[in-house]
Design goal:
Blueprint: E1 23-28, E2 31-36, E3 45-48, H1 49-60
Antiparallel strand pairs: 1-2, 2-3
Length: 66
Amino acid sequence: MKVVFKDTDFKTSSFTHGVISCVEVAIKDGHIAVRNNRRPEKGMVLFDELEWSAFLKGVKNNEFEL
C-alpha cells in the first residue's frame, strides 16, 4: 500500500518561532515523511515507525548535537 501525503498533512515544530527554513513532518498510516518547508517540490524522506523511533531516541540522547 502506497501512502500519499498532502501538503496539509505536514506540520512544523512549535519551537521554530518564525524561522523561515525548517523541516516539516507528516505522520500517516505508520509512515513518517520529512521535507524542507522552503522546497517541498524537492520531495521528502520516508521512514517507517521503527526507523523514526530510533531517530527520536538519538535526538533525545543528544547524538546529533551541533
